[in-house]
Amino acid sequence: MQLKDMAKKQKMGTYSLSFTAFVIGGMTVTQALLIVSIVKHIFLEEKPFSAVTLQLVALLAVFTVRGLFTYIHGKIGIGMASKVKREFRQSLITKYTNNPIQTSIKGQSGKRVTLITDVVDEIDPYFSKYYPQRILSSIVSLILLTAVFWQNWVSGVIMVVTAPLIPIFMIIIGKKTEKKANEQLEKLTALAGKFLDSLQGLITLKLFGKGSEEAANIKTSSMDYRTATMDVLKFAFLSSLVLELISMLGIALIAFEVGLRLVIFQNISFFAAFFVLAIAPEFYKTLKDVGSAFHAGKGSMAAAKKISQELEESNQIIQWGNERLSDAADPPSIQLNNLSFSYGEDYFSLQNINATFEPYSQIAIVGPSGSGKTSLLHLIAGLYLPSTGEMLINNQPLFTYDEREWFDKLIYISQDPYIFSGTIKDNILIACPGKEISEDELTYVIEKAGLTELIDQLEDGTNTYIGEGGRGLSGGERQRIALARAFLKRPQIILFDEPTVGLDLYTEGILQKSIEELSQNATIITVAHRLHTIKRADCILYLENGTLVGKGTHKELLENTHDYMTMIEEQQGDVAG
Ligand SMILES: Nc1ncnc2c1ncn2[C@@H]1O[C@H](COP(=O)(O)OP(=O)(O)OP(=O)(O)O)[C@@H](O)[C@H]1O
């Protein structure tokens, strides 16, 4: 939606702005009339000061009312701006939170943060400056023009002829400004993205000795932003200069005309001449003000365009249904029917995966690095939306079920489980939100996950703060927290991304034993790297470049899938070596 339409939609604001503009216009004319009348009485008619006391009081009242309404006019604009900004922020956040996983796949968190904060703020000038000024200027200039025509139509004609020059130049310069403001926003979002990226990868950059190179890149990006900002400012100054020149020229022409008629032709009264001269600067000033505000408004238009593009960008949302999953103790059956998924056009895709996982079966997904194993696991978890095909759970499409029902049945143990800022206990209990867990139960799962020794060493035990701002944990310890979550939840489906990096023998042993124990009550689908896991799987899915090239037991695949056999031989070689 255009900003113009958004502003018009705020009917109450628009009416209030029009009303205040009428009052300001009326006060400006009254003010000029009073000043001219006072000057005429004192200087031309040489009346005593007491003769104009009442007019002076009236003038003071007019000043006050005009000032007050100008303040109210500004306030209404600010109110409209904050309402629109709030709406934009809400729409963006709703879009991102409607499908956080899809959003995060597309990366660029820095860009999104800048969009929600800085770019939305850029919308402000349109509503707080340009829109109120446009209403003010159009109403006030009409009132002033009518007043001038009433006193001296020739000056009115000069005003009508010169006034359009202001909007014409305004549009010419404004077009350029919009382009420059667009460039400025591009540079700002690029700078934010680059900065966040470097910050997140600081350790990697340092290790590769790329710290100073990256600093130079950030500097270049920041200089680009500076140049773009200076360009915008250059146009702002140029625009003020041109507007100033045109209004000076208009006032000079009127002064010249009024002067000629007053002094040489003597066919205009002093009152009319002085009144026109008092009104002319006000008339050009109000047009000039809309010119300057227009400049600021153009920046807002560029920002609005950027936000609209983001909002319009299609983001397919996963729509869950409200079917209930069976309460049976047995895990549900899982069937992948021609399941395909793509990260986007020209990106990696998984194609037509067909497989059936019986309850309590142990499935291993194997394949070379980048073949799509983790992507398939995400798809099975219901985190990604398939592009075609479907996954059937107990013979019904997954997304017909209630989201909570499905997630309650499974646990996903990733290679690098996320630890939230909080205590060890909080981090384990997230597996069963809202459920009362006794201390005994907690001690049991801690023991099962091999965390007892670690926790015993800690002064605050399970109340020790970990994660952001707390005590750091090693990769193996994080995996064990994930296992504790799994033991607490006792899921019917376990999705496990087996670590590729070697864990210490202790953690490795715990992991193996725990997964074996958990799998007695669950179907377990593992992205497998260890020969041991692969060999004992009931069914192995062998992926290559997003395609399922082999399916079966270890023995079957060794016989009929050549690449699988090569991979196993290489692994055995590694183990032997
Ligand atoms: N968010 C994303 N956007 C675009 N492409 C992605 C995204 N995430 C992963 N990919 C690409 O998808 C492909 C498959 O990735 P995936 O992580 O599923 O592979 P993998 O088989 O699990 O690899 P590995 O064994 O190395 O972990 C890779 O080529 C990867 O570059």
UniProtKB/TrEMBL annotation:
GO cellular component annotations of the record: plasma membrane
Domain ABC transmembrane type-1 as annotated: residue spans: 19-299
Main location: membrane
SUPFAM superfamilies: ABC transporter transmembrane region (SSF90123), P-loop containing nucleoside triphosphate hydrolases (SSF52540)
ABC transporter domain residues: 334-570
Transmembrane stretches, start-end: 21-43, 49-69, 135-151, 157-174, 235-256, 262-280
Keywords (A to Z) from UniProt: ATP-binding, Cell membrane, Membrane, Nucleotide-binding, Transmembrane, Transmembrane helix, Transport
Any one Pfam family match given in the protein's UniProt record, by short name: ABC_membrane
Recorded topology in the membrane: Multi-pass membrane protein
GO MF annotation list: ABC-type transporter activity; ATP binding; ATP hydrolysis activity
GO biological process: cysteine transport
Localization of this protein: Cell membrane
Protein name, as recorded: Thiol reductant ABC exporter subunit CydD
Species whose genome carries this gene: Sutcliffiella cohnii
